[in-house]
Amino acid sequence: MTRAAAGSGTVADSVVAGEWPGPAAPGRRGRPRSAAAGPAVIEAVLRLVEGGASLGELSMERIAREAGVGKATVYRRWSGRTALMRDVLRSLDVPGPPLDGASVRDDLVALLEFLRGGAAGRGCALLRTLVGHAGAQPELWAEYHDTLVRARHEALLAVLRRGVANGEIRTDRDLETIADLFTGPVLARALLQEWHGAPRSPSADLVDLVLEGVRPVAGAGAGSTPGCSAGLGGGAGGAGRRGAV
Amino acid sequence: MTRAAAGSGTVADSVVAGEWPGPAAPGRRGRPRSAAAGPAVIEAVLRLVEGGASLGELSMERIAREAGVGKATVYRRWSGRTALMRDVLRSLDVPGPPLDGASVRDDLVALLEFLRGGAAGRGCALLRTLVGHAGAQPELWAEYHDTLVRARHEALLAVLRRGVANGEIRTDRDLETIADLFTGPVLARALLQEWHGAPRSPSADLVDLVLEGVRPVAGAGAGSTPGCSAGLGGGAGGAGRRGAV
DNA sequence: CGCATACGGAACGGTCCCGTATCGGAACCT
DNA sequence: AGGTTCCGATACGGGACCGTTCCGTATGCG
Q1: Range with the poorest average pLDDT among A137-146, A160-169, B79-88
Q2: What is the mean pLDDT of residues A71-77?
Q3: Chain B residue numbers touching A136 (CB-CB < 8 A)
Q4: Does B39 score more than 60 pLDDT?
Q5: Which residue of chain A comes nearest to B179, CA vs CA?
Q6: Triad B191, B187, A147: Cα angle to 5°
Q7: Residues A225/A219, Cβ–Cβ less than 8 Å
Q8: Among the residues of chain B, which ranges form H helices?
Q9: Higher pLDDT, B1 or A158
Q10: Å separating the CA of residue B60 from the C1' of nucleotide D23
Q11: Could you give the CA distance from residue B187 to residue A187 in angstroms, rounded to a whole number?
Q12: pLDDT band at residue A94, thresholds of 50, 70 and 90?
């Protein structure tokens, strides 16, 4: 095991070496498994997907070659392509951003910025690849959805509910629809745009624009409606905060 | 030619039979090409993609089988998979909705409704498939983008510019960002959601919410800001129109 | 009618991949 | 040292697909 683990251990850093699949018994007798081979394979998959490969082009042979690993070593750790892809997904399951709860607006900005960051690099490449194969590999998509999407969606809904309680968000619209207003533009741009140096407007602008739209209308919503023209002026930049808790 | 053209000619209806690729000379001598085979192949590709097949699973043999057509017949009309896919994309190039220009809001609703409709059926399946393979097949994605995306994006921008001229849309934000606010939620939901009976909030709600957010803020934007609390009340349903021209 | 061409079907050689097996060597435990 | 296991590499039989070519048949033009 020399050629593996050549890349900067992006994954290896976040995973305890040795906890990879397979019968890694404690009282093992012979030569122990290389701690680097597993992460090297995961990393190779991510590198290939990032390079634009679709799932169909991800042959086990190519993965092993890219990882600098024998094919048998891959099969020794994973039962097949499905099990491997599952662990690739889990390797991307990083905790979400801290939401201090001080300001709904700031939490939304943090969430969207986190989403954009995750959707920018290899996360975006994987998301695109999986979206394209969601029909062909439903359980893989379900795994992705349950592992990476659901938690963040729940976090977003929690923030939005706080906004509703504060009176910053109108109650006469479905909360899921409002959530789509925030995440939709970020996801759509990540998925569809040139995704190589694509221009990105700041998350703060997006949040401010949408917040303006989902604010309770006068004479309708429940809570206290902030002053109608209290918004920031016309200037650019992420000027004043609005409606803190 | 008996088994082809079995499906309801969804594509054949919109294409002049006989204009399909290949040396279809006018003064041809022998047996003329079947007018049904070409559309049957296109239809088969769409059917397969709609059924969840990724590009890698779209073998020429499977396409021919699905179309009830010999493989040689496919190769007689198209030089290969790339040329075939190009024509599949073009078969989906339907004209956009009529934008009467009477109301910016109504035009936006019409555009989004059209977008959602196109992104709901086979258009959505093809979009997902292509997004997944955009890295592997850049020229195919470029063809899709130029054929189907660009025109509608330009139409949307034109409507938004009218909104700017009317004073319905603030000028201190990038128009592309504002366009993303409208299209992003629709596209993201079409691409990511369960896409089998996925719940959809009406386009009108989306337009009204976003329009509220992109309205010029008091004391800043150029045009006349419509009355602050002029919006519709809290009720559900697609109530009153706002800010007609 | 007769010919030219298209048709569906089947086969070709070639390439790639799968999942398994086997190799010589290397690493680790007892 | 000896035994055991993992390592990368390579080879295997089986299968799918590619793009082409050849059938025997069907069909329309001149």
Answers
A1: A137-146
A2: 94
A3: 52-54, 57
A4: yes
A5: A185
A6: 40
A7: no
A8: 37-50, 60-67, 71-77, 81-91, 104-118, 122-133, 138-144, 150-166, 175-192, 203-214
A9: A158
A10: 21
A11: 9
A12: confident
| Cα(A186)–Cα(A201) distance, integer angstroms | 9
CA distance linking residue A5 with residue A34, whole number of Å: 10
- What is the arithmetic mean of pLDDT over B13-18? 38
Inter-chain contact B191–A131, Cβ cutoff 8 Å? yes
Give the residue carrying structure tokens 């220009």.
B101
- pLDDT number for residue A199: 63
Q: What is the DSSP letter of B13?
A: G
The reported pLDDT for the residue numbered A20 is 54
Q: List the single best residue of B130, B160, B180, B182 to mutate versus A (max A Cβ within 10 A).
A: B180
Closest of A114, A87, A92 to residue A14, by C-alpha: A92
Query: How far off is chain B from A145, nearest CA to CA, in Å?
Result: 9
**Burial class, B184, CB count within 10 angstroms (exposed 0-12 / middle 13-18 / buried 19+):** buried
Specify the DSSP class assigned to residue B224: P
Between CA A79 and CA A89 the distance in angstroms is: 16
CA of A72 to C1' of D12 (A): 14
**Structure tokens, A14:** 């976040």
Q: Which of B134, B188, B215 has its CB closest to that of A183?
A: B188
Question: CA nearest A172 in B: which residue?
Answer: B234
Residues of B in Cβ contact (< 8 Å) with A203: none
B46 CA vs C12 C1’ separation (Å) = 30
Of B239, B215, B189, B207, which Cα lies nearest the Cα of B113?
Answer: B207
Interchain contact, B188 vs A188, CB within 8 Å = yes
Q: Could you please report the per-residue DSSP string of B88-107?
A: HHHHT---------S-HHHH
Q: Do B201 and A180 touch (CB under 8 A)?
A: yes
Q: Which nucleotides of strand C come closer than 7 angstroms to any CB of the protein?
A: 3-11, 16-23, 25-30
* Contact criterion met (CB < 8 Å) for B187 and A183: no
**Rounded-to-integer distance, Cα B19 and Cα B35, Å:** 9
Mean pLDDT of chain B: 77
